[in-house]
Amino acid sequence: MVRVFCDFDGTVAAEDVGNQLFRQFVGEEKAVEIVQQYLDGEATARQCLKRECDAVESLTREEFDKFIDQFTLDSHFLSFFEFCRSKEIPVIILSDGLDAYVGRVLANNGLSQLQFFANHVEFVRDGSKTKLIPSFPYTDSECEKCGNCKRNHMLTLSGDDDILVYVGDGISDRCPVKYADIVFAKKDLIKHCQQQNISYFEFHHFGDVQQRLEGILQKKRIKKRREAVMARREVFMQG
Questions:
Q1: CATH no. for residue 223?
Q2: Which residues of the chain have pLDDT under 50?
């Protein structure tokens, strides 16, 4: 079976929702400073998200939802999702952002049924303020790079005979592409794939992904990526 796993911010969602959220409610200068520490390797993804949430002075769920409601999906994603459903190909979203906005954007587009995994956030009253309190239910005990371990989801939700497809664009996608048989990359992820000698298909929107995947599915036999198979096997042997 072919299984598709997709990043959310800047991939399924037309924009980086988390980035815009914190720029709006933390202030652009401070938000950029926090993210830069993560990009420079001075903070883990969990530390980055905690610092971003801590820097939000107060934000109610109602204010949060109103802001999130302006964001849209990749204009070709709904068509892509319907295509996959017609072929009985599962699509799962893996995000290192917050579940509250991932779920909200999907629901706004009639995709409440689409399975996703993300970091959790609670809106907690603190006197006259409402604070954002993140938690990380999907961490990996031996790796602190990401809050939500995308690799683990891919491996636990697939079998030995499955073909794993990954679609992404950024830093949180660097790990999971190592374990994918077919990679669709754009923006910063392209450079990473080139540096790590990971074969990929460049895409600009999900129309590109659908067109390429249609061609792949027409083949009598879809080849697994040898390096990905070996990487998956190594994880299970360590476990």
A1: 3.40.50.1000
A2: none
